[in-house]
Design brief:
globular, 9 strands, 432 residues, 4 domains, 8% strand, alpha/beta
Length: 432
């Protein structure tokens, strides 16, 4: 793609990076076939190619973002399916991230939308605040239809995602060091996360149990924060960078072999810390090291020898976008589950997003619901006993439309390899 940035503009490293990405695009349109919003809406401007044109014009002119441009950028899920499909290697992730920063700096959103984004960006990355916010949201759930009738569909969508009852914290997961059982094979740090640690703390507990049984010392630093992905994808650059620096500091000082992540959306961001902090003279080198050490739990387990196991449940695996497109994890999760004895089934149209995408299911409820319903329809064709996935957002999103138990892959593996049977599947026959 031909670009027309001035020499002065290209002195800015962010603009220079955008220029490099834009010039990689050859207009082929392969991305449109796998883009969820284009598949649903059929609008060229709601495809990666269309958004690239909009972003190019906005950045070249260096003007305030226009409402029409913002609409189409906001509709992007950042699922990164386009990057899997693209034959030219266009780094759409870095381009859309930069576009969102520009929008955040130059565009004045409607008051309620701005307020909601501010509340979400403040509460969700802070577990104590998020826990309190969920308690207040439960009180408001009976009035969700009233909010919709007032035109506040985003509030209704938010309330629909709130767990029906408070989730008790797990004993495992407090800051500290969890010793390896038997001969120590290594030392790893574990990202506890923000949303996940509040609504599904069993995932972190299962991870600690499994890793320590396998001979790994697990460190929870206590100084870590949210990975930054929530605010990063809102264009709130300063907040995301601050969080990246803080995490790099604590994990670099922890002297670990790997940083284990159980929320694949977080993993995509942490693996990008090296890029995010590339211009930081203090943190650049350490960020690159941390990014290189970042491993999704499935990725980490795929690299070590696991004991023999056998399980008879039928599992449908949903590959989160951040797992298959963001981290290019391939079939690692399915292979681990099959090796544990599960009968594993993939989902038709598995490349399409379920509609979660961080806060997307709140900010774009109509599109998110369509994607969720399409995903659920495809899941039902597999007649699963259990659904497994690797991202808390997907678990929450799918649970609003399915009665089938949805678990993180590591919860199933922990059970098979000696841990307790997850509460969600205690009524199912099979296993210990």
């Amino acid at each position: 793609m031909q670009t027309n940035f001035t020499a002065e503009q290209l002195k800015d490293p962010h603009t220079a990076e955008a220029n490099k990405i834009l010039r990689t695009c050859v207009h082929c349109g392969f991305c449109t076939a796998t883009c969820p919003t284009y598949v649903l809406l059929g609008d060229e401007l709601d495809s990666p190619r269309g958004r690239i044109y909009l972003i190019k014009n906005m950045l070249e002119k260096n003007e305030a973002a226009k409402a029409e441009t913002v609409k189409h950028i906001d509709r992007c899920l950042s699922c990164l399916s386009c990057m899997t499909t693209c034959p030219s290697g266009v780094n759409y992730m870095h381009l859309i991230d930069q576009a969102r920063v520009h929008v955040e700096k130059t565009y004045r959103r409607p008051v309620f939308e701005m307020l909601l984004r501010t509340v979400l960006g403040f509460a969700m990355p802070r577990p104590p605040v998020f826990r309190l916010a969920l308690s207040l949201a439960r009180l408001a759930r009976p009035f969700s239809k009233a909010f919709s009738a007032l035109g506040l569909k985003r509030v209704e969508a938010l309330l629909a995602l709130v767990p029906g009852a408070p989730v008790a914290p797990e004993k495992l997961g407090a800051p500290g060091t969890y010793p390896a059982e038997g001969k120590r094979r290594g030392r790893v740090a574990l990202l506890m996360g923000c949303v996940q640690s509040v609504i599904e703390p069993s995932i972190n507990a299962a991870t600690i149990r499994l890793l320590t049984r396998l001979g790994y010392e697990v460190v929870v630093t206590g100084g870590e924060t949210c990975c930054g992905s929530l605010t990063h994808h809102m264009g709130k650059e300063a907040d995301a960078i601050w969080r990246a620096r803080r995490n790099v500091h604590h994990w670099a000082n922890a002297r670990v072999d790997a940083v284990i992540i159980t929320a694949s959306g977080c993993g995509t961001t942490i693996k990008d810390y090296g890029f995010m902090l590339r211009l930081d003279p203090v943190y650049a080198a350490r960020a690159a090291v941390v990014s290189a050490k970042a491993k999704d739990i499935v990725e980490f387990l795929s690299g070590i020898e696991l004991p023999a196991a056998s399980q008879a449940l039928r599992v449908t695996y949903h590959s989160a976008c951040s797992m298959q497109h963001g981290q290019q994890m391939g079939t690692k999760a399915q292979t681990l589950l099959r090796n544990a004895g599960f009968t594993v089934q993939d989902i038709p149209e598995g490349h399409l997003c379920c509609g979660s995408a961080g806060t997307y299911n709140i900010m774009q409820p109509e599109i998110a619901t369509q994607l969720r319903d399409r995903k659920i329809k495809n899941i039902k064709t597999t007649n699963p006993q259990v659904i497994a996935t690797g991202n808390i957002g997907c678990i929450t999103q799918l649970a609003t439309g399915l009665q089938v138990p949805i678990l993180h892959t590591v919860e199933l593996l922990d059970w098979v390899y000696g841990g307790p049977k997850p509460d969600k599947i205690k009524s199912l026959k099979g296993g210990a």
